[in-house]
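Open question from group meeting: does this chain pack into something compact, or does most of it stay loose? Before anyone orders reagents, we agreed to write out a predicted structure and look at it together. Recording both the input and the output here so the notebook holds the full record.
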Amino acid sequence: IKDGNPTEFKDYESPCGPPMSFIRTDNRGFIIICHHGILRYDYSTGEIDDAGYDLSVLSGKASILQARLDREGNLYLGTAGNGLYVIKKGSISAEIVNSDNNDFDLTSSNINDIMEDKDGNLWVSCYKKGLFQMSQHKDLFESYTFEKQGHSIGSSVSSLAIGDDNSILCTVQNSGVYRFDEKGKVSPMPNTLPTANNIYRDKRGQYWLCSENKVNKYSPSTGTMQT
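C-alpha cells returned:
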C-alpha cells in the first residue's frame, strides 16, 4: 500500500476457514485467527503457514469468533457456544477458561467480543447473556446481566467501548446503546441508533456508532448524534 492505495494484490487460501482477527505478535510477522485454526504470515517470505499452536482442547468443534492478545502476552480466544480459551504466554497449547461464578456458565457462552481496559481487566461480551469481567489482579469473575436488572434486550451484545468513570458502553443489536457503570448497574443511553451494531472510541475520546449503512458521531454525555 502506498499513499493509502493498494499497489499489488495477492490471493491467499485459508485452510482453517474464514479469518476473524489479525494480531501482530512481533516484528517478523503476525498471526491470523481463523474459525478453525491459527495461521502466521511471515514478512520475509510473504507466505502463510500454520502458526504451530495446539488447539486440540477445542476438539475441532468450536468456531473461533474473536481473539485478543493482552498486555501480558496471553492470547484469548472467544468461541461460538464453547466459551473462552487462553494460550498463555510462553505456551503453545490452548486451555479452557473456567469461572467460579455459579450463576454464569462461561464455558458454554457464545463470545463475540473481548476487550482489555486500562487496568488490565478483560471484558467479555456473551450472546444473549451480557458482560463478563475477568480481573487480572485476583482469580475472580463478575457477571453483569441485563435480565436481572429488568432489561429484556431480546438480542445480543455486539461490541464494547470504554466509557468515562470506569464505565463500559456496549451496543445491543436492534436495541441501541447501554452503559454499565463501575458497579455493574446498567442503563440505556439516550438518542441512539437502534440498529447500531458497533461502537468505537477513537484516540481523541470521540465515540462513533455504526450500523450496516450509517456512521454517526455520538456524545454519551448529551445524547446527541451527528451524521
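Observations to bring back to the group:
The mean pLDDT is 84.
The CA atoms of residues 67 and 77 lie 5 Å apart.
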